């Protein structure tokens, strides 16, 4: 019998440094992403189309509580992962407005909607920091893994409050490992400063939906 254990020796040399180098690159990207928030480029559209186990469509529906006939707003629809379902939640008679900085994302969503015979999605190119809608225009709004990409989150939350009617709902979804993730405590503080009332959370620290509302007029 040989005295060797049969185990291969640990990898040495330049190849052994690859995992550490990749980890450093990922950490560097995450740090830069936090310092310089920016929308996910269209070339990464496959990533925003992947399933999201912590931020499911079913949980979004529970948090948002949409009803037929309502007017909804989604900021940052990407390729329509949530939009195609939300449009059905408010049918018949309701509409879903989708706003994105990138025309390519809007075009992708509208093509997907047309392929599924959905005619109640209304796209608009614009900035969440200056929403192109009148005051009190929407019954509810939502954005998922998007708030952290906006340079001035406080301004965006004030704008969302402005375009929601009294009693209107806002749902914000955040998840790891998104480098732009906004912690719940930070989100609650910013939302309160914008005049939004916190109503609860679905999910965990790994991924959550937080629901807010606009106080009713007295």
Automatic annotation (TrEMBL):
Which Gene Ontology terms describe the biological processes this protein takes part in?
Answer: methylation
Keyword field contains Nucleotide-binding? no
Record has Transferase as a keyword: yes
Sorted alphabetically, the keyword list is:
Methyltransferase, Transferase
Show the InterPro entries listed in the entry: Methyltransf_11, SAM-dependent_MTases_sf
All copies of domain Methyltransferase type, residue ranges: 73-172
Q: Recorded GO terms, molecular function?
A: S-adenosylmethionine-dependent methyltransferase activity
PANTHER family, per the entry? 2-METHOXY-6-POLYPRENYL-1,4-BENZOQUINOL METHYLASE, MITOCHONDRIAL, METHYLTRANSFERASE
Name it.
Methyltransferase type 11
Name its species. Answer: Rubrobacter xylanophilus (strain DSM 9941 / JCM 11954 / NBRC 16129 / PRD-1)
């Amino acid at each position: 019998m040989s005295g060797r254990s049969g185990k291969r020796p640990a990898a040495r040399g330049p190849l052994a440094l690859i995992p550490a180098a990749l980890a450093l690159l990922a950490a560097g990207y995450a740090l830069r992403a936090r310092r310089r928030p920016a929308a996910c480029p269209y070339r990464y559209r496959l990533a925003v189309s992947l399933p999201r186990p912590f931020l499911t469509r079913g949980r979004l529906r529970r948090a948002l509580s949409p009803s037929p006939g309502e007017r909804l707003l989604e900021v940052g629809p990407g390729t329509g992962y949530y939009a195609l379902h939300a449009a059905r939640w408010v049918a018949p008679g309701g509409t879903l407005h989708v706003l994105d900085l990138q025309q390519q994302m809007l075009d992708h969503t509208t093509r997907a909607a047309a392929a599924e015979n959905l005619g109640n999605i209304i796209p608009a190119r614009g900035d969440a920091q200056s929403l192109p809608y009148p005051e009190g225009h929407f019954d509810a709004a939502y954005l998922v893994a998007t708030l952290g990409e906006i340079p001035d989150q406080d301004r965006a939350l004030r704008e969302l409050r402005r375009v929601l009617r009294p009693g209107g709902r806002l749902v914000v979804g955040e998840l790891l490992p998104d480098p732009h993730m906004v912690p719940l405590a930070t989100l609650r503080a910013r939302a309160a400063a914008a005049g939004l009332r916190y109503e609860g959370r679905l999910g965990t620290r790994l991924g959550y939906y937080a629901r807010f509302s606009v106080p009713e007029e007295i």
